[in-house]
Every structure is written in C-alpha cells, then in structure tokens.
Design goal:
This protein is of the alpha/beta class and 790 residues long. The protein is 61% helix and 10% strand. The model is unreliable at 424-431 (pLDDT under 50).
C-alpha cells in the first residue's frame, strides 16, 4: 500500500511539473489513503504538493489551509519545503517583505539538504520578493542561480522561465530593451506561453511602461483568454488591473475606473491586500470622486505595499484636482527625484517644479526632469519605444514652457522649447549591427506584400500583421547609444543663419506661438488658435492635392490658403527661412508659401547638421520604381546629364538599392510612396520586388549625403508627444543624411519631371538646397515638396 501511495504521489508531481496538474480530488484521495495506512508523514508530504497546486492555480487561501494542516507532520527537507511554500504564498498575496526571511531561511535549509529542485523554487520566489522590493541586482542574481540549477536538473522550461524573470527585473529597473530581449530569449529557450500565460502580463507591463498602450492591450487580451481557460484567477486579476492601467494611460478614464474597480473586487475576494491597494490607486488616479483624506490613505497604502510609481502618480493627479492641498500632497514626492527608476525620479522633479515659487527654480526642475527622461529614452533604439518613453516628459515640458513664457524673454523661450525637443533625431549615425533575422523578415514581408498586390486576402493580411509584429519586437530589443549633449549660444546660431530667418513654433494651451530670429534679434509671436491654423493647413493640403489634377477652382483655393498662412509668418518675405514646426505644421507644404524654406526637427539638430555637413564623395544613384509612366524617363534623363549608377526595371530591387545608396553622394528615387501614420517605419517606397521600408533604411551603414524622394507623401512624419517625429525622410536624417527633398502630398507623375530636373540643375549650380527647391517649385508649380535638414 505504501509503495502504491508513493508511486501515486510521484505521478501527481510529474503531472504538475509537466504543466498538466490533476484535479485536487485525486490528491485528497491520496491523503485519505495515507492517513488510513498510518503514514502521517506521507499524508503531510502530499498536502505540501496539494498546497503547491492550489498556489499554482491561483488559490492562495486554499494553499495556506493545506500548509497549516500539514505542518505538524513535517520534518527535515519537507519542513524546508513548507517554509518555501509559505514564502511563495506571501509573494502571491503581495507581502514581499514578509516573504523574504521565510524564503532566505528555506534556501539555507534546502542547501543543507542538497535539494536542488526546491532550492531553485525558493530562489525564484526570493527573486520575485526582492524585485518588488526594488533590490534589482539581488533579484537578478537569484533568478540566474535558479536558471543554472534548473538547467542542471534538465528542466529546460523552468530554466527558460528564470530568463523571463530576469527580463521582469530589467523592466522594473527601467531597461526596457533588455527586458523585451530576455522575454524573447526565454521563449526561444523553451518557455511555452500557452502553458504559462502569466508571462504575458510582464510583457504587457513593459510595453505599457514604454507608452505602447495598443500593443500592451493586444498582449493582455491574449493573456486574459489563456488565464481564464486555465482557471488562473490570481493572474487573471493582475491582467485586469493591467488593462485598467492601459485605459488610464490612453486617457479613457471611465474604462480605467470601471476595470480597476473590477480588479479590486477580485483581489479582495482573493484576500490580496497589496494588490487591491494598487487597484484602488489606479481607480482614484483615473478621476474617481474622492477627498484628500481618501487619497492620502490610498497613497500611504500604496507606498507601504511597495507601489511607489502608482503612489507618485496618484499624488500628482490629486494635487491637480485639489490645488489647495498641493504642498501636503507633493512635498513627500520631491524626495524621490534623486533615486529609483527614471520615471519615478522624473515625477519627483515634476513635483519640485509644481511646488517652486520662483520661475528659475521651475525651469531648473523641469530641465533636470527632462535630463532624466533623455537618459532613460536614449537606451532605446526603437523609435516607438523611445517616443513612448519621452511621452513621460509632456507635463515637464508644459510646466517649463509656462515658466519661460511668464518670463517673457524670447531667447529664453527659444532655448526652452528647443530643449524639450532636442532629443528628436538624436540617434547617432553609427553602423547598425548586422541582424540576419531582421533582414530575412523584411525580405519575407516585402515578398508577402508584393504577392498580395493592393488587395490582400484575409489570410495575407494576417500574415503581414504577424511579420510586422515580429519586426517590431526585434526593433524593440535593440539598445540605443548615448548621445553627448550639444549646446549652442546666440553667436553660433546667428553665424549659421546668415541672412536666413528662423521660426521655431510651439503649441501652447490650444494656441500656436513662434520665436523668430532675424539678424540676431529674437521676438515672440502669438499666431492664433491651433484649431484655426490647423484648418487652414488641411484646406491647403486638400486644395493642392485636387489642383494637381488640373482643377482651376482648387488652385484658387490653394492660393488663398497659402496667402492666409504666409500672413502668419512674422518675418520679412525676402528672407530664406529655417522653420522648426510643431503639431499640424509638420504636415504643411512649406514650398507653397513661395519662399525658400528648410525644415528642421529642432534648432539643435539643424545646427548639428550644419556643423557636420558631409562633403560629396560617393557616386550618384538614380532609381525608378514600377507603375509610374514618367519615372523611368525622369531618372534616365538625370543619369544622362549627371552620370552615376542607374537602377530601373527589374534591377530596382531593395537589395540592389540598399547596396548602391550606402555611402553615396546623391540619390534620386522616383516611385510610388506610402505613408503609415500608425507605424512610420513601415512607410515605404515601391520597388520592383516590393516595398522598401523605413526599417530597411535604418540598416544603412552610411547614409547618402543628399536624397530626393520623388514619391507621394515621402516627406510626411508621424508626430508624438515631445515633438518626436519619424517617417522615411526623418529616418534618413537620423542616419546622417544632410538634406532630404521629399513631398508631404501626393506627387503627380507627369508634373514631377520638370520640377526635379530644375531642382538638380540648381543644386549642380551650387545653389543653397532650399533656394534650389523654391526656384524649381516656382517655375514648375509647387507639388508639396519640402527641404528637410541642413
């Protein structure tokens, strides 16, 4: 009988380890049989297994009941296992400070008994407790040792889970690319997400930390389905809280309150106070009716249970709603600005700015907070990850601009507005790492899109989306490179401008303002409502698009809109312009305003480009894509006049073009273009073998010195908080191209030939790029081309 019981217990343990646990009733039967057989020690050991199963299935209270009933009959290694389980139970309910001594004691005893399997379990639990207590280095060491033990025991999936947990620690520490890289590595090493759907919650939280709420929601939807099917109630509650945080971050406050309240109810039913405190904090921060006393209790509870970021965000939200209590709410937050994760430190600086009673102190706090965000974001090479991280700076930027405007000094305002967006296009022009997997995925995506034509089937569309997601995941894992801060002073800017005028725009409280610099004089201009100016920009774009087809009425409307917008430019009409757009002005066809205009992402980036302007050393490359009647004639004519390399017809493939343009002097592309506002680096130029994506351009070792994109919408960019911009043109500028000529509108094939021919003639004659484009546009009718860069 004893042998059969032991064999039955071993079989149950094997099923649990394989991820197919039996129903609890079978363990109950084994316990009853062991007690009848007079084997209390075996019954207690089986109860430990039952406790482990209950904990794994998300029933911590039931786990504790089994532990309490088993404890009297335990000794030796089983007593150490029980202590480990008590520590794991404390982790599950959020009592990490209590878990730590239990798990440390269990680890010491399990080392003495040389029980490597349970030692690894205890190390995983202690790693989790240490992570939530913000002891990242110690947590990572525990997970690393556990992974080595599981590997030695041949438990491949458990070892892979430890790699995933190291990603969880990296995310808590603020290293989001490393976190995502380890999550991906864990799956490659054998971690099955379908059997361990709780791992998706960690990935979702990491995406949420990067501001990628849409991607986080997709991951959480999959996690919720799998967790619900598996009956994993505790983790399902955590996923529900994460959905609430997604809604809160996306600004859907009603959904955030509703979902946080539902998560709070689930946590209360599970008797997990640390977690219902977090749910309460999200519900309150999302705007639930409250008074200061309620908020204060919630903040203290969140801090007690080690949710510092949630507590900080709740303090700031409550201070905005109850300004009369701002000092009481924000003063404790100021102390965190020098330690902890970057988002928490940035919120500490924001609290310092809001409490400061001196304009200079406000600006100093906002600058310090933005430096924290810049350092945080520069470790992320992926644009959507970086722009999401920089979204944390929006409140700091607003507070700084308010203070700068209150001072009324145009030079200071220009320095401030440029400071808040100087990180745009800040990625260094270094050779990107070779990534065969990325190259293969881009090749497959290109072939899939090409095979689908303009009307992909539902299956092809699913395939395209899956490939894009895999490419994005690889991009997210890339680490950025630090960029040395570059400053500038009045004298350098004036010398670089020469006879040009500078206009730097900003959006502030629903209005557009500008700082002009003309002959060394700085002025502040209030240009009017952002809504009114935005309507004029959209009207101009529409009229120009229609007039390109020969509609005379649309031409009249376009001229009227252009005159209205030109009247807003507070600089002499005879001066070439350098403009730093904001908001809707990024989509303005500046060439329609009838003067030479160079468009830059910031004053800093424009000056950086002028300092490091490349000399022409490579060859010229002329490229024509398929499907345009006049494209091949256009590039053959230019090639005949200027020489270089010609790629047309079947030779105009992505591989040939990437090889040809790498390090070239001048590149001219006449092709169909497509802009993707949702994913700017999947904007593309159509070639013989399919689309050439923005992701392809970021793989260039050396960017071309100058490029003309005679392609529809190739100059458009998506704009994110902090004026972070990206599109095909800005991807090239970020790689080191000095000047990009591109259109922010559809390009009529037949009318483009004369314009770009005149443009190249002006460039060959040594004219300034913006002047050459303005002259060509004036002679041949503007088509929405802009001159981007130096």
């Amino acid at each position: 009988m004893s042998t059969e019981l032991s064999a039955g217990h071993a079989a149950v343990l094997a099923r649990i380890e394989a991820g197919t646990p039996p129903p609890g009733e079978s363990l109950g039967v084994l316990i009853t049989l062991a007690e009848r057989a007079g084997r209390p020690e075996l019954a207690a050991s089986i109860r430990l297994t039952f406790a482990w199963l209950e904990l794994d299935m998300g029933r911590p209270a039931a786990c504790l009941r089994q532990l309490d009933r088993a404890s009297a009959g335990l000794a030796g290694v089983d007593a150490a296992r029980a202590r480990c389980l008590r520590g794991l139970h404390a982790c599950a309910v959020g009592r990490h400070a209590e878990a730590l001594p239990e798990l440390t004691g269990a680890i010491q005893e399990l080392r003495r008994h040389d029980n490597r399997h349970w030692l690894a379990n205890a190390l995983v639990g202690r790693g989790t407790a240490r992570a939530y207590l913000h002891r990242a280095r110690d947590a990572d060491a525990d997970y690393r040792e556990a992974a080595e033990l599981f590997t030695g025991l041949g438990e491949r999936e458990r070892a892979a889970a430890c790699v995933h947990n190291r990603g969880f620690v990296a995310a808590l520490s603020g290293d989001l690319p490393l976190a995502l890289r380890r999550f991906t590595e864990a799956e490659r090493l054998g971690l099955c997400v379908r059997r361990h759907p709780e791992t998706l919650i960690d990935r979702a939280h990491t995406l949420l930390a990067a501001g990628l709420t849409g991607a986080a929601r997709e991951v959480l939807a999959r996690a919720a389905t799998l967790l619900n099917t598996a009956g994993r109630d505790t983790k399902l509650a955590e996923a529900t809280l994460a959905v609430a945080q997604c809604a809160w971050q996306a600004g859907d406050l009603a959904l955030a309150q509703e979902t946080a309240a539902r998560a709070g109810t689930m946590f209360r039913q599970q008797r997990r106070p640390a977690w219902w405190v977090a749910a309460d904090a999200v519900e309150l921060a999302s705007g639930k009716e409250n008074n200061v006393a309620t908020v204060t209790r919630a903040v203290r509870a969140a801090e007690h249970h080690h949710w510092p970021l949630l507590a900080a965000e709740l303090r700031l939200a409550a201070a905005a709603r109850h300004p009369e209590h701002a000092i009481r709410l924000l003063t404790p937050l100021v102390s965190v600005r020098h330690a902890g994760p970057a988002p928490l430190r940035a919120l500490g600086w924001l609290a310092r700015a809001r409490l400061a009673d001196d304009r200079r102190a406000v600006l100093a706090a906002c600058r310090a907070g933005l430096r924290v965000i810049d350092r945080y974001a520069e470790g992320m090479a992926a644009w959507d990850l970086r722009s999401g991280a920089r979204g944390l700076a929006a409140d700091l930027a607003r507070s700084g601009l308010d203070a700068a405007l209150a001072g009324g000094r145009p030079y200071s305002i220009l320095r401030w507005t440029d400071r808040q967006r100087a990180a745009a296009l800040c990625q260094p022009s270094v050779r990107p790492p070779a990534d065969p997997q990325l190259a293969e995925l881009l090749f497959t995506l290109r072939a899939t899109v090409s095979a689908a034509g303009g009307r992909p089937s539902a299956e092809q569309q699913r395939r395209i989306i899956a490939l894009e997601n895999r490419i994005r995941k690889i991009d997210w894992c890339r680490r950025g490179q630090p960029v040395a801060e570059q400053d500038w002073q009045r004298a350098e800017l004036c010398a670089a401008l020469g006879d040009r005028a500078l206009l730097s725009f900003s959006c502030h409280n629903g209005n557009i303002i500008a700082i002009s610099v003309v002959d060394g004089r700085y002025r502040l201009h209030h240009l009017g409502s952002e809504r009114r100016i935005g309507a004029a920009v959209r009207s101009l774009r529409l009229a120009l698009t229609i007039s390109a087809g020969g509609d005379r009425n649309a031409e009249v409307v376009a001229l009227s809109c252009a005159r209205e917008l030109s009247a807003l430019l507070p600089v002499p009409p005879d001066r070439p312009l350098v403009v730093v757009p904001a908001g809707i002005l990024h989509a303005l066809p500046w060439g329609a305003l009838g003067r030479p205009v160079s468009v830059a992402a910031s004053v800093t980036s424009w000056l950086r480009a002028t300092r490091h302007r490349q000399e022409g050393s490579g060859e010229r490359v002329w490229i024509a894509g398929p499907g345009l009647r006049h494209a091949e004639r256009e590039v053959r004519s230019l090639h005949a006049r200027y020489g270089g390399r010609l790629l047309v017809g079947k030779h105009a493939t992505a591989t040939n073009i990437l090889s040809a343009v790498d390090g070239s002097d001048t590149v001219h592309v006449a092709a169909h273009g497509e802009f993707r506002a949702d994913q700017p680096l999947f904007s593309a130029i159509r070639l013989a073998d399919g689309p050439l994506f923005g992701h392809d351009l970021t793989r260039l070792r050396r960017a071309p010195r100058r490029i003309v994109l005679s392609a529809c919408d190739s100059g458009r960019s998506a704009v994110r908080p902090g004026e972070e911009v990206l599109g095909l043109a800005t991807a090239l500028l970020g790689r080191g191209t000095s000047t990009v000529f591109a259109s922010v509108l559809p390009v009529p094939d037949d009318r483009a030939v004369g314009l770009v021919t005149a443009l190249h003639a002006g460039l060959a004659a040594g004219h300034d790029p913006a002047v050459a484009l303005a002259d060509a546009s004036s002679a041949h009718g503007h088509l929405g081309f802009v001159c981007l860069g130096a």
